[in-house]
Amino acid sequence: MSKPVPRQFASFALIGVGGLFVDMAALAVALHLLGLDPYGGRVFSYLMAATFTWYMNRQFTFTGVSRRGAIRQWARFLAANAVGAVVNYGVYVLVLKVGPWVIAGIGLWPEGLTALLPYAGVAAGSVSGLVFNFVLSKKLVFRNA
Questions:
Q1: Which Pfam family name is an example for this entry (predicted)?
Q2: Can you tell me the mean pLDDT for 75-83?
């Protein structure tokens, strides 16, 4: 039996936070122990974090789905989350490009706080990527047969 969607989403988000720590730790390993450059190291850390989050979501978030075809499911998870990463980055760029116009237009944001706009973009991108990844994971990766 699967969990209700709000519980699944909370579990997915919590595992995503764990994945963030795995990502950072794997990047440090890649850079300092494996001698990879920042770009190759990022590919390595993404794969480690995505594998961690796939496994944890398979075990705890999307219970009740088939345990067969793990390699195919893992590949679908990587593909779905790569699409979510593009959404995340796109929203980040959108906030950076449109944010100053919105701020100037509504006049509610003090001019000195525009330096915080990139952080608002990261937050908005993370939230949009999270929602997108959850929906794709639920519908395409961890669906019932």
A1: GtrA_DPMS_TM
A2: 91
State the pTM of this model: 0.76
Burial of 36 (C-beta count, 10 Å sphere; 0-12/13-18/19+): middle
Give the residue carrying structure tokens 């990766």: 141
How many other CB atoms are there within 10 angstroms of residue 83's CB atom? Answer: 14
pLDDT band at 110 (very low <50, low <70, confident <90, very high): low
pLDDT higher than 90, residue 55: yes
Please say whether the beta carbons of 1 and 64 come within 8 A: yes
Cβ neighbours of residue 13 under 8 Å, at least 6 residues apart? 130, 134
